Known about the structure:
This protein is of the alpha+beta class. It has a domain at 79-237. The protein contains three helices and eight strands; from the N terminus they run αβββααβββββ. The strands form three sheets. Strands 2-1-3 form a three-stranded antiparallel beta sheet. A three-stranded antiparallel beta sheet has the order 6-7-8, with no helix packed on it.
Amino acid sequence: xxxxxxxxxxxxxxxxxxxxxxxxxxxxxxxxxxxxxxxxxxxxxxxxxxxxxxxxxxxxxxxxxxxxxxxxxxxxxxxxxxxxxxxxxxxxxxxxxxxxxxxxxxxxxxxxxxxxxxxxxxxxxxxxxxxxxxxxxxxxxxxxxxxxxxxxxxxxxxxxxxxxxxxxxxxxxxxxxxxxxxxxxxxxxxxxxxxxxxxxxxxxxxxxxxxxxxxxxxxxxxxxxxxxxxxxxxxxx
Length: 237
């Protein structure tokens, strides 16, 4: 375009020729075509009346959802899904309190039943009663309803309101604490030949996850957390 910057002192007919040339060339250059918004149908064309879209999620809430999620022995090459992160280790802290307000006014909570897992850089070892692999905990403790809740809404919170459980700890995920409706499955028994690599449990030792809600009946106060024990009743947690 610099060639068109003709000095005004040049002859007029020269200027006219150049201007005419520009006009003639511009007529040969195609005009860019811009896309025009289209009014595409958002509903099937065969419908005569409009219908709002619906997404229905159906969740089984039968007693079988309180059964254990995983069968078979523990295999650390499998990422077991549950309320724990499978790649994270956890430390059990018996001092973490219960947020009783999260259960009010429906249930009176026994606030002496403290303790919870928190993420840690610890390394699991036999007789280290505080350090556990998250993958191992998922295999051992996850019930079907726990996994379903984790998929749909990230898990069940003790309370959706922030609460001070400890330094930087403001929310707590809780697992199902009820047996099957027929009261079977109130105790989930597990054993693993490699458990000492991922938990305080010696290889081959039996573990049990017991629901305090087993047996039903009205209680004056409610223990909200499941318990991990040895088969003989010795408590790990």
